[in-house]
Amino acid sequence: MSKNKLLPALNEISKFINSLDIVEGISREAEYDLFFSLADEGTLLLSGKEAIQYRQCLKLLIDTIGDESISPKTIETLYQKTILTALDIHEKRRDKPFEQRLKVAIDELQNSLTTTPTTFSVYYPVFGLALDGLPIQVGNVLFCKFDDVHLEKFLKFLNEYEGDESEKAKRMSFADSIKQSEIFGKSAGLIDVKAFDNIAAKTLALKELALTVDVINFFSDIIPYQKGHIYLPGNNERLTINIPIISKGEKPNFTFGWEVAGPLMPFSFPQLLENDKKRDWGFSKIANLLAKKRNGLEDKIISAIQWAGKATVEGKKEEAFLLYAISLESLVLLDNEKEELGYRLRTRVAHLLGGDLESRMKISNKVRDLYTVRSKIVHSGSYQVTDADISLIRLYSKNCILHIVNNEPFSSMNSIDSLVQWFNEKILT
């Protein structure tokens, strides 16, 4: 973030702070819109126009920065510190005039928002993953077992820490608590991210991990005899549930419906890598895309894989169907034209997967029928998707993706326009 880009937002903040009445600001009547405080700097109550201006300036600052490496909460904390430092409610800086305090506070805010971000290593729990075959790097994520080797890294940092004994004792206690936590001895994703604060670091790491997990899950149901997938805390836990079912009538019938929800077994990286090598699925190519700076077409491919990966592990058929449809549309309808979506979708899928006129016509008709199912789900919300429907849209979605990833001329394309042009030429000829 350049300092010049920040100037308009900083000027607005400076005007806002200038407009605040310090006496009125700390002794308002009970009705106020917001208040905030920082240790040793006091509490400020804002109501009416002041509260509106506060929010407008904060939004302007966040939008101007537009960088996920610093969290909105951290931006707001720095913003609040600037206001309270300039107002000096506790009169700690009254040897300096208000104008000088304001200038110093604005300069400190500018410096804080334009410093170089720090590298954070984030260990995020990953469930449903077999420990055999770990560690393994996929894109920007190292899937590993969080054990003594990783804990040793924490202890090394602590031993190098130069500070007061109480702070060092707190950090040692933190390291001990890790060993007692649920993550220890279990699978985790290690992601290094550059951020200004730990909240932003966690958010960025989770975003990268979720993308990588979705990409891996894209392959989870095409591995023979593999009935597992990876999931993050709070998603797709494996549960065995008992469902009492009672029929009412002359002869009531009582039964228990046993059902297993979630993955049936841990996901195995060795099986994925072995099958990828045998069948040339392109997993290694896709993993490389995750780790590089991607062009527009590569972003579209990864997005389509991510949607299909979400669909693969979605338990509700209707939602899975829509996710596969989104995947197919995001890959094939690249030019975002709104006219004749159904027609363009079915003709483009047909040209991607059909080897001759007859097969293309069959595919086109089937995609048309699937698009009708999609419309019913979206517009009525009650349409029940059959196994035949879900398997067919899954087939088209995944085959289109793998075809573009692994075959020429698509592998050599480096722009969305190149693929759109290929579609147009096929249709015209």
What does it look like?
The protein is α+β, with helices and mostly antiparallel strands and 429 residues long. The chain folds into 3 domains: 111 residues, no CATH class; 137 residues, no CATH class; 136 residues. It has 16 helices and 8 strands. The strands form 3 sheets. It has a 4-stranded antiparallel beta sheet with strand order 3-6-5-4. The radius of gyration is 28 Å and the shape is globular.
Structural classification: alpha+beta
Order of helices and strands: HHEEHHHEEEHHEHEEHHHHHHHH
How many structural domains? Answer: 3
Shape: globular
Q: Report helical residue fraction.
A: 55-70%
Specify the number of helices. 16
Mean pLDDT: 86
> Which range does the strand content fall in?
5-15%
Number of strands: 8
The profile of the biggest β sheet is:
4 strands, antiparallel
**Biggest sheet, spatial arrangement of strands:** 3-6-5-4
The unreliable regions are: 23-30
N→C terminal distance: 49 Å
- How large, in whole angstroms, is the Cα Rg? 28 Å
Summarize the structure.
This protein has helices at residues 3-19, 22-26, 48-65, 72-87, 98-113, 148-160, 165-180, 198-220, 269-279, 283-291, 296-313, 317-332, 341-353, 357-380, 387-406, 416-428; strands at 34-38, 42-46, 118-125, 136-138, 141-145, 187-195, 239-247, 253-261. It has 429 residues and is of the alpha+beta class.
